[in-house]
């Protein structure tokens, strides 16, 4: 019998109606919610700083509420919902034990690989994979005082995202304005990035 180090039998809560909580709005959203690997990640997490809601499924609910409040076009809203569903759901696989950190084992990398089963839209895939990069660039500058490293990280993000910077920003805003997250990274991003159309929540 295989060991279950993450104790997934307890993490997956059979009494929770996933569809009722997340209300899929498209065949792709429904297919994602039905995937067993995805479902494992929905119930990972305990209340912690930035995420007092604890489990990923409740974070997704909060981000969905922000997406609705933004009142974007139907196509942008649909993209934001897909990014929201995927972005943090593979934290249960993330490995932070090595130093220096192995970024190939970051939850966003796992999320992108999973999402590739459902779409070949490079814009969505890149935003899922890079969704935390703006925060990391801010942290390097203001927490670690690594100004050069921060600039390189932000420049690389902007190069990779290219013309999709507005969609990236919209998701970053929806994601950051949840729980009790520090709003300083978002304010810095809005001051720093040229050409984005600022929105409020």
Shape: globular
N-end to C-end Cα span: 49 Å
Number of spatially distinct domains: 1
Helix content: 55-70%
- Tell me the β content: under 5%
Q: What would the average pLDDT be, to the nearest integer?
A: 92
Beta strand count: 0
N-to-C series of helices and strands: HHHHHHHHHHHH
Low-confidence segments: 1-12
Report Rg: 17 Å
The number of helical elements comes to 12
Major sheet summary line: none
Structural class: mainly alpha
How would you characterize the overall build of this protein?
- With 201 residues, the protein is mostly helical.
- It has one domain (8-192).
- The protein has helices at residues 8-11, 18-22, 27-33, 36-42, 56-70, 74-87, 107-115, 122-130, 133-142, 147-161, 165-176, 184-192.
- The longest helix is centred in the N-terminal third of the chain and has 15 residues, at 56-70.
- It is globular, with a radius of gyration of 17 Å.
């Amino acid at each position: 019998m295989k060991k279950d180090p993450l104790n997934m039998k307890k993490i997956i809560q059979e009494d929770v109606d996933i569809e009722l909580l997340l209300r899929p709005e498209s065949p792709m959203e429904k297919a994602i919610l039905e995937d067993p690997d995805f479902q494992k990640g929905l119930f990972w997490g305990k209340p912690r700083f930035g995420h007092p809601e604890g489990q990923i499924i409740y974070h997704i609910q909060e981000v969905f509420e922000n997406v609705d409040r933004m009142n974007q076009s139907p196509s942008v809203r649909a993209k934001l919902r897909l990014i929201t569903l995927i972005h943090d759901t593979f934290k249960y696989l993330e490995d932070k034990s090595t130093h220096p950190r192995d970024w190939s084992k970051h939850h966003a990398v796992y999320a992108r690989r999973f999402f590739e089963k459902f779409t070949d839209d490079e814009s969505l895939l890149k935003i899922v994979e890079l969704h935390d990069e703006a925060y990391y660039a801010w942290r390097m500058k203001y927490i670690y005082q690594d100004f050069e490293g921060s600039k390189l990280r932000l420049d690389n993000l902007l190069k990779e995202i290219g013309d999709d910077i507005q969609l990236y920003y919209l998701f970053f805003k929806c994601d950051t304005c949840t729980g009790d997250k520090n709003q300083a990274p978002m304010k810095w991003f809005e001051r720093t990035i040229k050409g984005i159309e600022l929105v409020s929540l």
